[in-house]
């Protein structure tokens, strides 16, 4: 049976065509079946690849057996999209960075061809990342449920007043919170929005979550790290124009009384990395540690 590749890409990237030409031929030469969203068709044709070799599917092969690989060509936002659409099914993800930062899509575009060859040679390392299951409840009604790789954010709109929330961790009352919002992040998400809110960087192997307030009314309210085994509950007491945002890509409007429940999900996202690209080397590379 042919091996299957799911292709997820940032279609507006000026580097997409050249990256497709560098990364895809080794798979096509080996008879892999490649599936991508319909928006990929134009870039695929411009790259000079045979249109018949790309299976266009808006559902990215959801009705087929689990694919052997998801190749992401883009930035971290593209990879988060792929994680939700494909990675949650158990397909490992290989990210090639077409953007500028790229904590998750850690392999540079200049090394696209060699990264693909490393995958085919079996020399990449599987990095399994914990995820966060998020539920939105309004009274006894479940309005939304989603598993995320990075974070869940409860925040107010641009012109709204400060929010009143109530936080519980496990069976303990963490008290009322007045702030512009609250971030709950996985170790993977600790280098995203939570970091800009003053949160700590967690090693991806940790079984823990970051709870980081956004512009708290009390300056002594600081980000905290809690065990992943403890469920988290955020109840909105008083707010206007409030929203729940998941991985920065899915949004839900919130009303006073709504409760956001969070717990560690059973699902893990598998990222494929080069053996020499350890976490601290990545931090030094992306955050320019040691530079003057």
Task: Characterize the structure shown.
There is one protein chain. The protein has 292 residues and is of the alpha/beta class. The chain folds into two domains: 4-124 and 274-287, Rossmann fold (3-Layer(aba) Sandwich), CATH 3.40.50; 131-266, Probable inorganic polyphosphate/atp-NAD kinase, domain 2 (Tumour Suppressor Smad4, Sandwich), CATH 2.60.200. The chain has helices at residues 16-23, 25-29, 41-46, 76-85, 112-120, 193-196, 279-287; strands at 4-9, 33-36, 54-56, 69-74, 93-97, 107-108, 125-138, 141-148, 151-156, 163-169, 172-179, 181-185, 208-214, 224-227, 232-238, 242-246, 250-254, 259-273. The strands form three sheets. It has a six-stranded parallel beta sheet with strand order 3-2-1-4-5-6, sandwiched between helices. It has a six-stranded antiparallel beta sheet with strand order 8-7-18-15-10-11. It has a six-stranded antiparallel beta sheet with strand order 14-13-12-9-16-17, with no helix packed on it. Strand 7 and strand 8 form a beta hairpin. The radius of gyration is 20 Å and the shape is globular. The model has no long low-confidence stretch (mean pLDDT 94). The active site is at 76 (proton acceptor). Its cofactor is a divalent metal cation. GO terms for molecular function: kinase activity. Its main location: cytoplasm.
Labels describing this entry:
7 helices; single chain; globular; 2 domains; Tumour Suppressor Smad4; 292 residues; Rossmann fold; 6-stranded parallel beta sheet; alpha/beta
